[in-house]
Specification:
One of its GO terms (cellular component) is NatA complex. The protein has one domain: Gcn5-related N-acetyltransferase (GNAT) (Aminopeptidase). About 30% of the residues lie in helices and about 25% in strands. It contains 2 helices and 3 strands; from the N terminus they run αβαββ.
Length: about 80
Amino acid sequence: PYRNLGIGTKLLEHILQHATLPTQQPKFVEIYLHVQTSNEEALNFYKKYDFEIVATVEGYYKKISPSDAYVLSRKL
């Protein structure tokens, strides 16, 4: 019921803005997250924010199928 309301966009933009503040200590250099390999909607969302797939973790999820996850990363 909370999809397509802009909540994820606002949250991610807030995190990215806060993480790149010049006064932020310690300084963040990278953000990473996991996404289920079949979740095309999430993959497309994060790619719009310059996240890239950097690894695949087999069996990451224990109770859902497919159980594999991509690790996405973005340098700050």
